[in-house]
Amino acid sequence: MNISTKVTSQTGAISKDQLIPGARATKGEVVLVSLATFIIFFQAFMVAPLLPELSGFFGSTVQQISFIEPVYLLGYGVFTLVYAPLSDRYGRYKIIVFSFSLFLFFTFCTAWVENTTQMICIRLLTGVCAAGIAPTTISWISDRFPYGERGYALGIFFGWMAGGMAFGSSVGALLAGIIGWRTLFWLVSFAGMIILLLNVYHRQRLFPDLRGSVAGRSLFAVFKEILSLPRAKGTYFFVFENGLFHSGVFAWLGVYFHQCYQLNEQGIGLALLGYGIPGLVFGPALGRMADKMGRKKIIPLGIVMGGITVILLSFVPPLYAACILVTILSLSFDLTHPSLATIVTSFSRQNAGGSTGLFAFFLFMGYGFGSLLFSLLVSSGLIETLRVFGGMAIVASVVAGRFFRRGH
């Protein structure tokens, strides 16, 4: 097939014939590689509902044990800058297997900790080890799909990520009440080991050798080159903003359902279950829609949808309506994050890992600052803070519409 090789000066987008023949992945292959990210996010988001139980078990306060959340995010966010660029140098397979193996080891060891200090330390190590999976998988997708079709694959990937977030905070909490928190960590590590072995078994099909080594360049030089591109800084800003918005709101939805509807932990878990449904069910279709309609329309739409949804939640609608709004909030995530990631993969063909490493870094910095900002503002009232975040998202959607109008 003769397709012209076209690289835009603004994005560096690659065309179809720049993929090595036979390199295109199938939907099943994308799902198999994305399952590691599902396990990581399931494990990350199952911890928050366990804080009261863990504080009682270790004889500490909830505030003390709550440090296991920010240390995990800090370790994860910082080390995404390391793993993904190294995958450009040593290959996607080696980094994914190395990172996922260590993640599973420390997840298994978490069940053996005996006090709060040990739990905080092992959560930090778990976050550091987990940081290599998601950004390297995004880079793998950029290897296996041309730019105009990456939205489909990234829709699958982010669907499984959102599913891990939702099921971790809901099903994880329900399972912990049945089998105990220690057994829950063992169960997660066992499920992850099965996924790891499947990826190893299908190595030749999943991880063909697509690129040469880019050894000899420092990570700083790679990041500087990427951030010097005309649209990179603005795109990463919206990655940060979107992570800040969704993390801040999601982190407090449990408190919202407890205060406004007097739900217990099981009820909260069920209320949040809808958060991952749109991505898991409609992720590929949403990705194809972005490929066809253009990301300049999809990203502002997703941002404004999230803002309006949060403002509607602030009016405390009937419980069934609030559960539906949580699902719509998830849909706004599924419209924005895959599209932003698709744009990021176009910044540098030679250093795709560096581009996605920066994406994951800004995303998780947004996650951390989002929960922190919401915590600082919530003293003025939970409902008022929801409206502030909703208003911020609506303003951001207007700015995003202008920024992305000239491309993508």
Keywords:
408 residues; mainly alpha; 18 helices; disordered N terminus
SSE blueprint:
Elements: H1 27-45, H2 51-58, H3 62-65, H4 68-90, H5 92-110, H6 116-130, H7 133-144, H8 150-179, H9 181-201, H10 203-206, H11 219-227, H12 232-261, H13 265-272, H14 277-293, H15 295-313, H16 319-344, H17 352-377, H18 382-403
In a few lines, what is going on in this structure?
This protein is mainly α and 408 residues long. It has 18 helices and no strands. The chain starts with 26 loop residues before the first helix and ends in a 5-residue tail after the last helix.
Q: In words, what does this structure look like?
A:
- It is globular, with a radius of gyration of 20 Å.
- It is mainly α and 408 residues long.
- It is built from 18 helices and no strands.
- It has helices at residues 27-45, 51-58, 62-65, 68-90, 92-110, 116-130, 133-144, 150-179, 181-201, 203-206, 219-227, 232-261, 265-272, 277-293, 295-313, 319-344, 352-377, 382-403.
- Helix content is 76%, strand content 0%.
Percent helix range: over 70%
* Principal-axis shape: globular
Beta-strand percentage range: under 5%
The overall pLDDT average reads: 83
Q: What can be said about the biggest beta sheet?
A: none
Helix/strand class:
mainly alpha
Order of SSEs: HHHHHHHHHHHHHHHHHH
Q: Which regions contain 5 or more consecutive residues with pLDDT less than 50?
A: 1-22
Total strands: 0
Number of helical stretches of at least 4 residues: 18
Radius of gyration: 20 Å
Distance separating the two termini = 25 Å
